[in-house]
C-alpha cells in the first residue's frame, strides 16, 4: 500500500481539507499528516488522520519513505509559510523520490499565475490525481 504524506502549516485548513477528502475516498489509506506547527497537525487529526507528527524532523523522516507528498506549493520553497518551512524541509520535499502534488496558493509572497480563489476545485483535482496513481497500482 502506498504511503501518502500530507504536509501543511499555518492554520492547517488546507491540510484538513486534503485529509478529509482523501479519507472519504480511501478510508484505509496509509496516510501520515505532518504539520509545521501544532495547530496544523491538530486540524489534520480532527479530519481523521490516524498518524501525525509536527515539525522539521518529522517532515524529514516522513519524506524518506513517502510515495506521494501533498500540500501547498510552499512546502517546497525555503522560508515560505511565513518562515515555517525551513531550508531542510523544502530540500526534503524536493529531493524525495515521492510523487509531489503541490497545491498552488497565492500566499506568503508566492504568486502562481492562473490560480483562482477556489481551492476546493484544486483539491478535487489533486485527489483525482492520487486516485489515478493508486488505481494504477491495481492495473
Textual characterization of the structure:
The chain has 139 residues and is an alpha/beta fold. It has a single domain, classed as NAD(P)-binding Rossmann-like Domain (Rossmann fold), CATH 3.40.50.720. Helix content is 45%, strand content 18%. It has a five-stranded parallel β-sheet with strand order 3-2-1-4-5, sandwiched between helices. Helix 2 links the parallel strand 2 (30-35) and strand 3 (52-54).
The beta-strand count equals 5
- Main CATH class: Alpha Beta
Low-confidence regions: none
SSE pattern, N- to C-terminal:
EHEHEHEHHEH
Summed over residues and divided by their number, the pLDDT gives a mean of 90
Q: What's the domain count?
A: 1
How would the global form be characterised? globular
Spatial separation of the terminal alpha carbons: 14 Å
Helical amount: 40-55%
Rg value? 14 Å
Largest sheet: 5 strands, parallel
At the fourth CATH level, what is the homologous superfamily? NAD(P)-binding Rossmann-like Domain
- CATH domain topology: Rossmann fold
Structural class: alpha/beta
Q: What's the helix count? A: 6
**Gross CATH architecture:** 3-Layer(aba) Sandwich
Strand content: 15-25%
In what order do the strands lie side by side in the largest sheet?
A: 3-2-1-4-5
Amino acid at each position: 500500500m502506498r504511503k501518502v504524506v500530507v504536509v501543511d502549516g499555518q492554520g492547517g485548513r488546507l491540510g484538513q481539507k486534503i485529509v478529509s477528502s482523501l479519507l472519504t475516498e480511501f478510508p484505509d489509506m496509509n496516510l501520515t499528516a505532518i504539520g509545521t506547527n501544532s495547530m496544523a497537525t491538530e486540524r489534520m487529526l480532527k479530519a481523521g488522520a490516524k498518524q501525525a507528527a509536527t515539525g522539521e524532523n518529522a517532515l524529514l523522516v516522513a519524506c524518506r519513505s513517502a510515495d506521494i507528498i501533498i500540500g501547498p506549493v510552499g512546502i517546497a520553497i525555503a522560508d515560505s509559510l511565513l518562515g515555517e518551512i525551513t531550508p531542510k524541509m523544502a530540500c526534503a520535499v524536493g529531493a524525495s523520490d515521492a510523487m509531489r502534488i503541490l497545491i498552488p496558493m497565492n500566499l506568503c509572497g508566492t504568486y502562481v499565475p492562473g490560480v483562482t480563489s477556489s481551492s476546493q476545485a484544486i483539491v478535487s483535482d489533486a485527489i483525482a490525481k492520487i486516485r489515478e496513481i493508486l488505481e494504477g497500482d491495481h492495473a
